[in-house]
Amino acid sequence: MPNSSSTSQANITGSETASTSYVNYVEMSAEQEYFLYELETTDSGSMGLVLRAIYDTGDVQQFARALQQRISHYDKNIQKVCSFHYQSFVDAMQELMQLKEQCQDIKDETVQIDAEIQCISQRLCAKKQEIVRYRKLMKNAKTAMDQIAVCLPVLENYAKLQELMSNKKYYQALKTLEELEHTHLALVEKYRFTQVLAKSMTPVRLEIKDKAYSEFKDFLENIKKVAGRIGKHASKDTAEQHSFGVTDAERARKIQEEARKNASNVEIEVSADGSIVKKNVSPKRYPQAQVEDSPSFFQDDEQVSAQDLIDFTPVHRCCQIFNVLGAKEEFEQYYRQQRREQCDLVIRPSHKMNNFKHYVEYLDEIVGFFVVEDQILMTQSNLSTAAEKDKLWDNALLKIRHHLDARFGGCPDVEMMLRMKKVILLFILTMKSYGYAVAPLYELLQNFRDQYNEILVKEYCAQFERDLDKDNYTPITVNSEEEFRAVIRQFPFYKRSMEQEPFPRKFPFSRFVISAYTQAKQYLIGCLKFMDNLQLNTSAVDDTVRRCANVLLGRWAGILKSFVYKRLSMIQLVQITINLGYLEKSCESLGAFITSKTSGEEAIGTTSHQVVLSEKVFRDVRSEVEQQIDECMRSKVDEIIELSNYDWELPAAAGQASDFITDLIKFLLTTFQSFTNLPSGLAKHVCTQTCKHISQSLSDLLLSPETKAISTGALDQFSLDVMQCEMFTTRCPVVGVDPQTLSMTFADLRQLLDLVMSSDWTTFNAEYGKDHAKYLRVKASTAIVVLEKMIEYERKSTGFFGIARGDRKRLLDTIVRQLKLLEIQ
User: Fold this and answer.
1) Which residue in 169, 418, 518, 629 could disulfide with 164, CB within 3.0 to 4.6 Å?
2) What is the C-alpha separation between 451 and 412, in angstroms, rounded?
3) pTM over cut 0.70
């Protein structure tokens, strides 16, 4: 039967497979076959579209027949499948009947086992009740033992508390108290003896709190005592780290000593090939005493910190105690209040701060105070915050700056200010190393810098005045090469031809120039000393030094202006003018000197500066001196001309120049020869102005209202004197002066004399006012004055208005009338 079944199954499978294939019917078109395929495979939502397409074709009846054939075909296939699975269904029903019998056997066995279990369970329950009764007895015994064990720690901890209080171990006592109160008493609070213990806890807490406050006050007192030592050691460490106050020579010496010390432990030798190799030597053993006596041993011993000088245990203990007591905020407020008050005490300077040592001690105490504050902040961050520390420092900083400015701001001693600047700078570096803001202290140092520079300026101005008074106002003369090189080293002067000159050689300037230039460089070096380590960049330092140099040069210019208004000789004025010219040229060398000190030698000539050395201050002074030279020359000329004592009624000329003219020309020759080193423009200007003044003074002498009559002989003598002056202009010793231009200064006077002495009135009247006139420079009013004085002389001496002279009288009257008409025109 199984074989038949499998055979039939194979046949049915083949028929089923065949039935699932589509059969082409003669009456069914391809389009209808496509519609049937779409209905079978598409979802219900697209079925309406398929049906609409069927109706649109118009052949609905034929499609219905094809659909009916397809349905019949599928029904046949279903019947074949059911026939194929029928035998399997029959076999399955038979297997279920067999399973029913087996289940009934299992049920009978289960009922039997259940009866046995019920019997055993009854015996087990009896045993269980007996076990429960025994366990209850054991639990009661254990509970009694536990209660006794709980009470024993309470009594033991209370005894321990009393012992700790007597030994002044308050924090341990407080921890024991907390443990007793919150751990042990809570377990046995139902007993009456715990109530007595609880009442005694509050007095113990208050006692611990009072003792903690007392210990903290002792700690604050200890801080006050050792703050100075802490600050001193902190400043010392900062100075060593920054090599503060150590010169380059000392730093190099220390490096050499360290290298020598390291090299002493290594022995070397030169090998055959010339290289250096170490020797294989055993290390030397030194006795212990020698190591302890070495300098490094004491240096290590001196390197102490705030923890070494102060025991911070009381602070930590107090924080722990108040934290346990629940009064943490109360202790923090108390701590900050006490520190603020202590800070005010430290910052307030004592009345005996009258020397440098007191200032150092004052700043060391401040450093020590804030070092301790910084240490407390690192170890107990809850006591003091960074904001509180900065606020405390900011308030202190304002007071520190005020006290230093008030007590030290008026110091007149430069060296004292330099020392104080170093102390304040070390204070700044120390506080900065601990993270404190120090910008206001740099501003304070800058204020001190201005005061320091002002004191320096006053000192060098006083020295400048002394050099002015001591100068001999003569060019420097050197007699040997050493002296010549010494001057060149002191002042930047170069003249190629001078090195070829024989000795003795003369420099154009006096000793005053070298002294002023040297003093200026020393002043600039003094300014740089104070600006060292002031947090200024190279450009700012350079510009600041240049401003200071301009201040000094301006002050010196003011001193020179005041000095030249004293009664100085012509030689002094001329030498001062020459000196000023070289001082003005030296400003460029001073600028290079400043650059070399601030930026280095390599930066000279390559750096642009916002502040330029003001050379015009010397130009202004030089213009003042030039005016003084002009005035001095005019004054000297006036003095000589005042000695003229002319006899205006002289019958005949003496045939030679007057004595005062000879003296005047000698004076001019001597003076103009000293103008050799003067600037060419100045020498020509002074020469020209002096000749103009001589011409004007002689004209004033001729036209003076005090002279009523002039003789022909006097005119001849006056003309001879003027001729001497004209001859001087042709041989003037001043280089660069045009003799023709210089002789023109006497042209007005010469034309006037030629006119009146030659009586060429016809030509004068005919050409008056024309550009090519022979007497172009003569005014009619001037000619009238001279002519009237000549008429007055003739009237006084010869009886001018006699009958014999009537024709000349009419002629001269006619000339005077014509001149007056020309004057009116």
Assistant:
1) 169
2) 9
3) no
Neighbouring CB atoms inside 10 A of 711's CB total: 20
Q: Residue 283 has what DSSP assignment?
A: P
Residue found by looking up tokens 């020469």 in the block? 687
Q: Measure the CA dihedral 59/64/65/66, to 10°.
A: 90
Task: For the beta carbon of residue 733, count every other beta carbon within 10 angstroms.
Answer: 17
Asked if CATH classification 1.10.1040.10 holds for the domain at 452-474+510-621, the reply, yes or no, is: no
Asked if 452-474+510-621 and 644-824 have one fold, the answer is no
Residue 310 phi/psi, 5-degree rounding, is -130, 140
The model's pLDDT over 729-756, given as tens digits with 9 standing for 90+, comes to 887 767 767 777 777 888 888 888 888 8
pLDDT of residue 13: 40
Rg of the chain (C-alpha set): 63
Measure the CA–CA gap between 12 and 307, rounded to whole angstroms.
105
Q: How far apart are CA 397 and CA 347, in angstroms?
A: 9
Residue 392 and residue 270: Cα distance in Å, rounded?
Answer: 64
Q: Half-sphere exposure of residue 438, counting CA atoms within 13 Å on the CB side?
A: 19
SS3 call for 240 = helix
φ/ψ of 171, rounded to 5, equals -70, -45
Assess contact for 524 and 590: CB atoms under 8 A: yes
* CA 94 – CA 504 distance, rounded (Å): 156
What tokens does 551 get? 């201040």
Q: Which residue has the tokens 């290590």?
A: 300
CB 245, CB 422: distance < 8 Å: yes
Residues constituting the chain = 825
**C-alpha span between 36 and 212 (Å, rounded):** 104
Neighbours of 231 (CB within 10 A): 27
Q: Which amino acid, one-letter code, is at 219?
A: F
544: enclosing H helix or E strand: helix 538-564
State both tokens at 563.
Answer: 């000095």
Q: 468 CB contacts (<8 Å, ≥6 apart)?
A: 512, 559, 560, 563
Mean pLDDT over 716-726 rounds to: 87
Under a CB-based contact definition with an 8 Å cutoff, are residues 220 and 342 in contact?
yes
Q: Give the list of residues 6+ apart from residue 815 with CB closer than 8 angstroms, or none.
A: 761, 787
Domain 644-824, CATH number (from 3.30.450.20, 1.20.58.670, 3.40.50.720, 3.40.50.2300): 1.20.58.670
Per-residue burial over 764-797, b if 16 or more Cβ lie within 10 Å, else e, is beeebeeeeeebeebebebbbbbbbbbbebbeee
Strand ranges, E, within 31-94: none
Task: Give mean pLDDT, residues 202-225.
Answer: 79
Q: Which contiguous run of DSSP H or E holds residue 269?
A: strand 268-270
The counts of H helices and E strands in the chain are 30, 4
Pick the closest to residue 482 from 509, 515, 512, 505 (CA basis).
Answer: 505
Q: Which of 19-33, 109-123, 231-245 has the highest mean pLDDT?
A: 109-123
- My answer on whether omega of the bond before 504 falls inside 30° of 0, hence cis, is yes
DSSP string, 454-478: HHHHHHHHHHHHHHHHH---S--EE
Buried b (16+ CB within 10 A) or exposed e, 329-355: eebbeebbeebeebbeebbebeeeeee
Domain positions in the chain: 30-167, 236-245+305-436, 452-474+510-621, 644-824
84 has pLDDT over 60: yes
Whether the Cβ atoms of residue 790 and residue 812 lie closer than 8 Å to each other: no
